[in-house]
């Protein structure tokens, strides 16, 4: 598992309102003809961050990245990097480098020439170029591959050459478009680790575009979830998973059980929601910005619920419902139970398999009770 | 029919159809007899006679020069045209350009030749250039129709080229001009080579268009051969044809080897 860049609590600049962002995206929109690919996106990214733009295909994340690199011009809005307005600066003059999804290694040049290409464009002296290339090759552990052509490398090696090439000019900002997308799972996990290590040791600001939420969760200091050209939520991985701000984010990240309900009690210290779909009342142990009789949604992660055969004692008869085990997915470390509730609604509950070969485990067709804590779920109004 | 027999028979027939005429031509170029179709013994005397024929050699040299310049000019224009068509998806007149650029491919040579002749005559009376018809007018006419072929060849290669390669170079600090010479040109080089060779061959081969736009004293090789054959085939034409076939075969083999190497590289990349 990759380790995130270690930022102490007090150095998380996004929590400090007076911190100056390194990349400042202001109300940026991009239209291709009539199609709006990116719509009114505003985003601040701070120095040394590893920021992930996460979204499905067509969410506008790649277009946003290409606007940062300068390959696309925003239809409206501004992009500032390190305090400089970049809107009219062509790609070859930006202090930004990009690692392409296809790696885009020049097929007619060997590894060294590929890495040196950007340095030559800066008219760096020959001896310095040699030193820099050697340094980068050792950074990505490809010392013996300098004379090979890209077609003589494996996928993982090509990925590392592409990374070395994009780091060669010591950019202030590195953009990575699905950097691990073309690697197999095993290699991807190792490479994640290396990527973070390199990012940490060089202190470069990374912006990574990915559709893989696991990748985003492990790599990122912060994640921007994109949906249909807009930013749905920005936050640390923990916030995005545990405190989603909308139904889209709750269901896009991880899996979630979502039910509709109506507010019956709205107090500053608790809320009670009646949900016929769930077959019980939901008692939420903190205040929520809502009104009595408002219809809203409540989402809970499968691992935040517990199963039992006996009806458990709960507060005011809330937060417990019952269902029949319809299906069990055994994943090794845990099992996912699919329950059919009386209302016909299906929910998923996952339980860690703590005991080995437990003969008393809950099995198919059994009627069980499901229960959860009063702050385990998220109340969502949008 | 059994599959085991069908394939060899088909292949033999195919090859015979293609190459028997050429083989017989090569064989008869070493014929001793004055009569083209009667074998009387081995000799290389027609080669000797050919190299003493000033008119034939002059025409061959003229044709080679025309082919070289036409192919080169057509390569430059055709590549520009292909870049415009592939890289710029929206500009005024794109559809017209895309349609008309391939028109010479389907236009009968007679019409192209006649049109060219009319143009040159008109230009001479209005602009005073080109004065008369000769090597310049043939080169212009050949450039025009070779360009169409080269555009098609280069266009197909260019559209296979991954755009992100050019973007990557630009991202690393290369201006669009540099990107073209550092990245685009080396990668499409095999297409340029085969395009140039194609143009060269087409120009060397052309009889009809050249007949329209040539002037006195600028008879190309195909024109000289054709006029000789009208008076009866003389065996030194066989010798000349054998030499040309040899040169072309070498060229094709070389181009194939180069093309195979670079395309397998690109595919694996």
TrEMBL record, chain A:
InterPro entries: AAA+_ATPase, ABC_SmlMolc_Importer, ABC_transporter-like_ATP-bd, ABC_transporter-like_CS, Mo/tungstate-bd_C_term_dom, P-loop_NTPase, PotA-like, Transp-assoc_OB_typ2. Pfam families: ABC_tran (PF00005), TOBE_2 (PF08402). Residues 23-253 form the ABC transporter domain. SUPFAM superfamilies: MOP-like (SSF50331), P-loop containing nucleoside triphosphate hydrolases (SSF52540). Gene3D superfamilies: 2.40.50.100, P-loop containing nucleotide triphosphate hydrolases. One of its GO terms (cellular component) is ATP-binding cassette (ABC) transporter complex. GO terms for molecular function: ABC-type polyamine transporter activity; ATP binding; ATP hydrolysis activity. Belongs to the ABC transporter superfamily. Spermidine/putrescine importer (TC 3.A.1.11.1) family. Part of the ABC transporter complex PotABCD involved in spermidine/putrescine import. Responsible for energy coupling to the transport system. The complex is composed of two ATP-binding proteins (PotA), two transmembrane proteins (PotB and PotC) and a solute-binding protein (PotD). This is Spermidine/putrescine import ATP-binding protein PotA. It comes from Devosia insulae DS-56. The gene is potA.
From TrEMBL, chain B:
The chain crosses the membrane at residues 7-30, 66-86, 98-123, 135-158, 179-198, 239-260. Residues 60-258 form the ABC transmembrane type-1 domain. It is a multi-pass membrane protein. It is found in: Cell membrane. The keyword Lyase does not apply. Belongs to the binding-protein-dependent transport system permease family. CysTW subfamily. This is Putrescine ABC transporter permease PotI.
